[in-house]
Design goal:
Chain lengths: ~100, ~230
């Protein structure tokens, strides 16, 4: 298998996991949230003003009624978007070689 | 372990941000030397994979969940400096697009997961490869230990930042954070070893921190990472 094909396959697996598996992931609080709740400082957490209009807040793609589908679409879009950002950063970093 | 805004004192958040900007800036400079043409798409795919698996929370004890951090995985694939960039891309995207992890706390989150988790523990894994037997089992042991340690080190750093902020006493938060992340770290180790073993079978050339034998290629990979 060529390197390029392998990477495309891994990206496809990542997108598929984010789309199809993330709606069924555990919704229990994560480690830090659990500790914050148990130790009584969870209510200090707040959104930054820049996050009040986050495009895909809480991994729910806006305008989709079904919560599982909203999460899946957020995962699909997010994974491809993060690939694009990572690829772009790497491309730019490589080009700035003096 | 994404810290939201409001948990950290502004001074602590600002100090962490200064450290993070400096180290990530230096990572970008290192990237000029370490990013050969083949690693450009690998960096993007690794960032995408880390983002995707961070959405997959698995249950651990007592109504708590954890997800793969991916810092050790990224370091094995790309070396410590590029892995730091991968984690920064993921954490920054999560904060600005998904409101996951704070904006003021972004520097602290990059410090905990990218600089301490990926860069710091990544270097430890490179060092461990030099010390331990250069066998497949030795390599996978380094992967397992590094995965667990990256989670524990990030949890320790987050606890210190919370304590320095006066949010919660260190004696209260540190044992609690380490207790739950010791379990999450086991999940991290199992998944990371499985992922690395799968890459070893199919495309072993993608593993920067590898060098199964003292071959020219392996030694070069280690030099590239170190």
């Amino acid at each position: 298998m060529s390197r390029r094909l392998f990477l495309a396959l891994v990206l496809a697996v990542a997108v598929a996991l984010a789309f199809a598996a993330s709606p069924y992931a555990s919704s229990s609080p994560d480690g830090l949230e659990r500790v914050a709740t148990d130790k009584g400082f969870v209510e200090r957490g707040k959104l930054h003003s820049a996050q009040h209009h986050s495009p895909i807040a809480d991994y729910a793609f806006p305008g989709i009624g079904d919560p599982r589908l909203a999460t899946g679409v957020a995962g699909f879009v997010g994974t491809l978007g993060v690939f694009a950002v990572g690829y772009g950063v790497a491309r730019v970093a490589r080009r700035t070689r003096p | 372990m994404h810290i939201p805004d409001g948990f950290l004192d502004p001074d602590v958040a600002a100090a962490a941000a200064v450290v993070s900007v400096g180290v990530v800036g230096y990572s970008l400079r290192r990237a000029e030397h370490e990013l050969d043409e083949r690693r450009v798409p690998l960096l993007g795919v690794t960032a995408a994979f880390v983002f995707a698996v961070q959405m997959l929370n698995f249950p651990v004890a007592g109504g708590t969940s954890g997800h793969l951090l991916g810092a050790a995985l990224a370091a094995i694939l790309l070396g410590p400096w590029l892995a730091c960039l991968v984690m920064t891309v993921v954490i920054t995207s999560q904060a600005f697009v998904f409101a996951d992890g704070g904006i003021s706390a972004l520097g602290a989150n990059v410090l905990n997961m990218g600089i301490i988790g990926a860069l710091g523990v990544g270097y430890l894994m490179v060092w461990a490869r030099h010390v331990l037997p250069r066998t497949r089992a030795g390599f996978l042991a380094v992967v397992a230990g590094g995965s667990w340690l990256a989670v524990m080190a990030g949890a320790t750093a987050a606890s210190l930042e919370l304590a320095l902020s006066g949010t919660v006493p260190l004696g209260t938060v540190l044992p609690a954070m380490l207790g739950v992340h010791a379990l999450i770290g086991i999940g991290e180790a199992v998944i990371t070893v499985a992922a690395v073993a799968a890459v070893m079978v199919s495309r072993p050339d993608l593993l920067t921190v590898r060098s199964l034998r003292r071959r020219a290629g392996g030694a070069q990979a280690i030099r590239g990472a170190a």
